[in-house]
Amino acid sequence: MSFGMAAMFSAAPAADASTLDDIRTRDHLVCGVTEGTPGFAEVAANGAWKGLDIDFCEALAVAVLGRRDAVRYRVVSPANRFQVLAGREVDVLPRANAMTLSRDTEHGVRFVGTLFHDGQGILVRRGHTVASVLELSGASVCVMAGTGAQEGFERYFQMRKMRYQLVTAEQWPDTVKTYADGACTLLTGDMTLLASERSRLPDPGEHVILPELVAKEPLGPIVRQGDDRWFSVVRWTLEALIAAEELGITSQNIDSLRNSPNTDIRRFQGEEADLGRPLGLARDWSYRVVKQVGNYGELFDRNVGARSPLALERGVNNLWTRGGLMSAAPLR
């Protein structure tokens, strides 16, 4: 037998193993999360996990098992997350990395979709009355030395022939302190990181994250290669959260929309068609998800948006009908 054929046969058992069956056998989902990520995955004072990543894991648990509490969490790190997933220690990584060609082809994983559009942003004091990055030519910026953030900022400004002055530090806490002390006009880093740091400043309301992104980083769920059935469940759960917001379905009004004249709403509720059967789920799985967890807008607002300490604008994470990038494939 050739080496190529041997490799093909040795890989077959992993593809045959069903994550969906494993979850049902153990009666809970195992989610791999990065601990201490405000707004996304953190442990609250009462010991319970909370955040956007957590809510998405709970949505999956509802879709498969009908209960949002049927989840166990495994803390993973950037160094081991793909190995942990490949080793079947977790069923899904809810928001681990942005998709790149190398990550999508070299780690035995599949990127499902985008749960959150992150990217490199810019924080500035409200007193500067700046509405756009394009108004910042000549500004000084605090940035970690030798990082992708420095490279991304320089590339963005140079392409637009804008002047700038770098104020660098070797560590992120020192970079933030330099900005807080007023030694630079701007602070640049991942948008979610900027929002977290802003919430800890003495007067968060006096600092604004500008709408433009210096670089984009779409983040979303990742599953193992070779399990198309589970991939479909994760993908269509994500699509259902977004579709519910598009249709105006929330956790508060979903019951009042029973027998709606809108065919798409009736289909979403499981009244018009059985969309759960091809996924191996209950007929009303998407109804249960929104009833227990909410739609995408509800998840965003309470974890990272207006109702959270991060107070992020929807921006690119808004629906496509409101100028954002979030859109759902039709559930039909």
TrEMBL record:
* Signal peptide segment: none
Which residue ranges does the record assign to the Solute-binding protein family 3/N-terminal domain? 28-257
Family matches, as Gene3D superfamilies? Periplasmic binding protein-like II
Lineage top rank: taxon: Bacteria
Q: What InterPro entries is this protein classified in?
A: Bact_solute-bind_prot3, Solute-binding_3/MltF_N
Q: Which UniProt keywords apply?
A: Signal, Transport
State the Pfam families in the record.
Answer: SBP_bac_3 (PF00497)
- The answer to whether UniProt assigns keyword Transport to this entry is yes
Q: Which CDD domains match?
A: PBP2_BztA
Q: Does the keyword Transport apply?
A: yes
List GO BP terms, alphabetically.
Answer: amino acid transport
Family statement: Belongs to the bacterial solute-binding protein 3 family.
Q: Please state what the protein is called.
A: Amino acid ABC transporter substrate-binding protein
